C-alpha cells in the first residue's frame, strides 16, 4: 500500500465512531424513555453513517479489493485503533451519556480542524459530520447538566460516571505515527493542540453541572495501538457476528 | 456498496469532458437538464411522500449522456437509511421511461435545509411537519426552550420540545400547548 499512513489515519478517526456507534446502538429498545432511546439510536445512526464514508475512502486507499464492510467488520481486535473510552460498556444512563459527552467535546474540536484538511475527501466528510455532531454535543451536554444539577442521586451517579471515565480522556491527545505524519502534511489534525481547549470546555460544563473535576493525573492508553480493554472482545463478537456466521452476506 | 459505480461514472464524465463543468456548477444551483425534471418530480421522498426528491434538494445534478442519465445526489444525514431507497427509487423511475440512471452519492457541498424548495416547505407543513427555522431560532427553540416553532395543526407557537431527536435523523419531536397535538419539526441543518 502506497499510502499506509493515510489508511491508518482514516482508521484512527473512523474506529472511534464505529465502536461508539455500536455502543449507542445497543440502547435500541433499551433506552430509559422513548425519547432518549430514539435520540441515542439516532446518534448511533449518524456515527455509523459517517464511518461508512471513512471506510469507503479507506477501502479506496487500500486498493486491495477489500470493501468498506470488510474493513469495518472483519478485522481482529488488535487491528482496531479506537480509544479505550468509546469501548467502555453501557452501565447506567449517566455513565453512557458521560462517555458520549467526553467524546463529543473531542469529536467537535477534531472535526472543526479536519474541515481544513488538504485532503478534500476528509474535509468533506468533516463538514458533513460536524453538522450532526453539533447536535450530539448539545444533547449530551444538556444531560450532563441535568443529571449533575438534578437530584442527589442523579448528581452522585453523574459524578461517579465522570470519575470512572476520566482516566480515559487523555488518550485522545497522544498521537500515533500516522497522526503525526498526516498532521505534518496538512492532511491530519494536530491533536496535541486540542488538549487545552478540550479540558477547558469539559471543565466549564462540569462546573455548570455542579460536578467536581477529577484531580487524578493517571490516564490509561493503548487503544490507539490496538491494545484494548476486556470489553472490546465482547463488543466485537456482537458487531461481527453476522459477517462471521454468514461470510459475505449483504442486506 | 455504490463505490465502484460512482468511480465508473466519474470516469465516464471525465472521458466525456463534462466532469469539470459539473463540478463547477455543484456549489451553485443544481444542474438538471430540463427534460429530466418531470421524471425526477415523480420520485417522492421515501419518508415524507408528499414532496419529491427535487423539493428536498438532494439532487444536485442530472445529465443525460448517450442514453444514460447520470445523477449526483447528496444525502441529508450521513446515516439516513432512506438514502439507499432514494437511489433505488430514482433508478426505477427512469427504468419505467426506458432510461438507465446511474446515481452517484457525493459528500460535498454538504446538504442544508436551505435547499428545500419553498413549495416543498409548504407541502411539508400541510403534511403536518413544522418547517425548519433559521439557525439562531432553531437553537433557541431546541436549547433555550423558546416558543418559536409553529404547530402545523393549529398554527400556534405555544409549543414545547419533547425530544431533540425524532422519528428520523432530520426531525425533532414537539407538542403544541394549545391543541395538544404532538408533531415533528424539521431541524435546521446548516
Walk me through this protein's architecture:
The complex is a heterodimer of chains A (251) and B (190). Chain A has 11 helices and no strands. Chain A has 251 residues and is an all-alpha fold. Chain B is of the alpha/beta class and 190 residues long. Chain B has helices spanning 3-16, 19-26, 37-41, 53-56, 82-96, 118-127, 135-142, and strands at residues 31-32, 59-65, 68-73, 100-105, 129-130, 159-163, 171-176, 182-186. Chain B has a 4-stranded mixed sheet, with helices on both faces. A 4-stranded mixed sheet of chain B has the order 5-8-7-6. The model of chain B is unreliable at 1-27 (pLDDT under 50). Classes of the chains: A mainly alpha (251), B alpha/beta (190). The A-B interface holds A 35-36, 38-39, 42-50, 52-53, 56, 59-60, 67-69, 120-121, 123-125, 127-129, 131-132, 135, 138-139, 142 and B 1, 3, 75, 77-81, 107-111, 142-143, 162-167, 169, 173, 187, 189-190.
Gist of the model:
The complex is a heterodimer of chains A (251) and B (190). Chain A is an all-alpha fold and 251 residues long.
CATH class identity of the largest domain in chain B: Alpha Beta
How many beta-strand elements of chain B? 8
**Large-scale geometry of chain B:** elongated
Q: Which architecture of chain A per CATH? A: Up-down Bundle
Q: From the alpha-carbon coordinates, what is the Rg of chain B to the nearest angstrom? A: 18 Å
What is the level-2 CATH architecture name of the largest domain in chain B?
A: 2-Layer Sandwich
**CATH H-tier superfamily of the largest domain in chain B:** Fe-S cluster assembly (FSCA)
Backbone structural class of chain A: mainly alpha
> Major beta sheet of chain B, specifics?
4 strands, mixed
| CATH topology-level name of the largest domain in chain B | GMP Synthetase, Chain A, domain 3
Rough outline of chain A: globular
Largest sheet strand order of chain B: 1-2-3-4
Query: Helix content range of the residues of chain B, please?
Result: 25-40%
Computed structural class of chain B:
alpha/beta
H-E string of chain A = HHHHHHHHHHH
Query: What is the overall number of helices of chain A?
Result: 11
Oligomer: heterodimer
- What share of residues are in beta strands of chain B? 15-25%
Strand content bin of chain A = under 5%
Task: Write the element-wise H/E pattern of chain B from the N-terminal end onward.
Answer: HHEHHEEHEHEHEEE
Q: What are the low-pLDDT stretches of chain B, counting only 5+ consecutive residues below 50?
A: 1-27
Amino acid at each position: 500500500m502506497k499510502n499506509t499512513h493515510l489508511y491508518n489515519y482514516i482508521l484512527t478517526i473512523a474506529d472511534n465512531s464505529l465502536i461508539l456507534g455500536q455502543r449507542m446502538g445497543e440502547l435500541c429498545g433499551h433506552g430509559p424513555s422513548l425519547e432518549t432511546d430514539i435520540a441515542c439510536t439516532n446518534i448511533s445512526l449518524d456515527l455509523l453513517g459517517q464511518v461508512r464514508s471513512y471506510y469507503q475512502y479507506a477501502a479506496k486507499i487500500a486498493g486491495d479489493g477489500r470493501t468498506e464492510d470488510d474493513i469495518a467488520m472483519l478485522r481482529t481486535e488488535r487491528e482496531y485503533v479506537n480509544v479505550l473510552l468509546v469501548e467502555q460498556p453501557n452501565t447506567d444512563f449517566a455513565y453512557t451519556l458521560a462517555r458520549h459527552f467526553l467524546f463529543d467535546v473531542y469529536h467537535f474540536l477534531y472535526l472543526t480542524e479536519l474541515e481544513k484538511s488538504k485532503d478534500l475527501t476528509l474535509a468533506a466528510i468533516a463538514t458533513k459530520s460536524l453538522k450532526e455532531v453539533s447536535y450530539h454535543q448539545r444533547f449530551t451536554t444538556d444531560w450532563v447538566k441535568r443529571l449533575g444539577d438534578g437530584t442527589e442521586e442523579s448528581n452522585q451517579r453523574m459524578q461517579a460516571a465522570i470519575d470512572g471515565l476520566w482516566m480515559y480522556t487523555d488518550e485522545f491527545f497522544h498521537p500515533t505515527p500516522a497522526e503525526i505524519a498526516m498532521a505534518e502534511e496538512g492532511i491530519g489534525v494536530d491533536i496535541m493542540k486540542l488538549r487545552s481547549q478540550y479540558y477547558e470546555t469539559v471543565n466549564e460544563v462540569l462546573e455548570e453541572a455542579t460536578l467536581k473535576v477529577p484531580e487524578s493525573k493517571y490516564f490509561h492508553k493503548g487503544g490507539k495501538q490496538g491494545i484494548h480493554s476486556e470489553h472490546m472482545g465482547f463488543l466485537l463478537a456482537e458487531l461481527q457476528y453476522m459477517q462471521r456466521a454468514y461470510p459475505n452476506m449483504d442486506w | 456498496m455504490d463505490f465502484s459505480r460512482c468511480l465508473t461514472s466519474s470516469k465516464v464524465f471525465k472521458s466525456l469532458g463534462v466532469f469539470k463543468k459539473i463540478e463547477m456548477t455543484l456549489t451553485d444551483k443544481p444542474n438538471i437538464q430540463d427534460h429530466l425534471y418531470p421524471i425526477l418530480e415523480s420520485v417522492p421522498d421515501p419518508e415524507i411522500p408528499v414532496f419529491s426528491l427535487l423539493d428536498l434538494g438532494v439532487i444536485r445534478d442530472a445529465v443525460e449522456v448517450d442514453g444514460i442519465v447520470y445523477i449526483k445526489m447528496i444525502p441529508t444525514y450521513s446515516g439516513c437509511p432512506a438514502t439507499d431507497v432514494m437511489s433505488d427509487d430514482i433508478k426505477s423511475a427512469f427504468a419505467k421511461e426506458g432510461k438507465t440512471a446511474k446515481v452517484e452519492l457525493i459528500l460535498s457541498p454538504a446538504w442544508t435545509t436551505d435547499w428545500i424548495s419553498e413549495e416543498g416547505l409548504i407541502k411539508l407543513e400541510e403534511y403536518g411537519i413544522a418547517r425548519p427555522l433559521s439557525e439562531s431560532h432553531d437553537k433557541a427553540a431546541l436549547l433555550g426552550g423558546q416558543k418559536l416553532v409553529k404547530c402545523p395543526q393549529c398554527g400556534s407557537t405555544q409549543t414545547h420540545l419533547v425530544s431533540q431527536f425524532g422519528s428520523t435523523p432530520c426531525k425533532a419531536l414537539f407538542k403544541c400547548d394549545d391543541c395538544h397535538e404532538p408533531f415533528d419539526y424539521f431541524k435546521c441543518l446548516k
